[in-house]
Amino acid sequence: MKIASYLCIKFYIVAEDFFFSGLHLAGNTANKQGSAVTAVNVVQIGGLNTMGISLVRIDYAPNGLNPPHTHPRSTEILTVLEGCLHVGFVTSDPENRHFTKVLAKGDVFVFPKGLVHYQFNNGNTHAVAIAALSSQNPGVITVANAVFVSEPAISDDVITKAFQVEKNTVDWIQAQF
Q1: What is the average pLDDT across 4-13?
Q2: Which residue ranges make up the annotated binding site for oxalate?
Q3: Which residue intervals define the domain Cupin type-1 in the entry (predicted)?
Q4: pLDDT at 165
Q5: Where are the domains of the chain?
Q6: Looking at residue 4, what is its pLDDT?
Q7: CA terminus-to-terminus distance, the chain
Q8: Would you say 115 and 92 are in contact if contact means Cβ atoms under 8 Å apart?
Q9: What is d(CA 81, CA 123) in angstroms, rounded to the nearest whole number?
Q10: Three-state helix/strand/coil letters over the chain
Q11: What fold does the segment set 5-139 form as a domain?
């Protein structure tokens, strides 16, 4: 029986499928948040596919913020390499308990899977952290962007009621983006 030649596909795996260079480079923190995330996940390293791990470098300017966000498919463990960070996460309803800690160089903090969390550099020097994530594609949902910048937009009626604010406040927040 003859097998069609188009069914015989050869896959070549090379070292570059398991390699990334660039975490030694500082991210550009000249933005409204004062932070930059350099991701190393399955998009950057194809060899991470099915491995269940990824990594990020986060740079923070003084007063820089990695804003409240969640990783729907991953727990995160963060290690401070330089500077000092105020970090925290919030449990889900009904408790909405806020767990927070100030971390110094070498300190480690865990953000449980799916919970809203943040990091803030309340110091006056640059800070750097490395975080490992328990998924090759952890995803990220930044809370403010999801609520105020979604396309199509969430109805003003929904946002004003959810946040118990006037429409002009919602308009002002949306204009910041």
Answers
A1: 64
A2: 66, 71, 76
A3: 21-171
A4: 95
A5: 5-139, 140-177
A6: 53
A7: 62
A8: yes
A9: 14
A10: CCCCHHHCCCCCCCHHHHCCCCCCCCCCCCCCCCEEEEEECCCCCHHHCCCCCEEEEEEECCCCEEEEEECCCCCEEEEEEECCEEEEEECCCCCCCEEEEEECCCCEEEECCCCEEEEECCCCCCEEEEEEECCCCCCCEEHHHHHHCCCCCCCHHHHHHHHCCCHHHHHHHHHCC
A11: Jelly Rolls (2.60.120)
Q: What is the phi/psi pair of residue 145, to 5°?
A: -65, -45
The two tokens of residue 142 are: 């930044």
CA-nearest of 57, 53, 71, 76 to 135 is: 53
Kindly report, residue by residue over 18-51, the tens digit of the pLDDT: 999 999 999 999 999 999 999 999 999 999 999 9
The annotated binding site for Mn(2+) is made up of 69, 71, 76, 117
Closest CA relative to residue 45, chosen from 74, 12, 20, 15 = 20
Binding-site sequence positions: 66, 69, 71, 76, 117
The amino acid sitting at 35 is S
In the chain, the amino acid numbered 73 is R
Kindly give the pairing relationship between strand 54-60 and strand 141-142: unpaired
Cα-based distances in Å from 65 to 34, 47, 101, 126, 128: 6, 31, 15, 12, 12
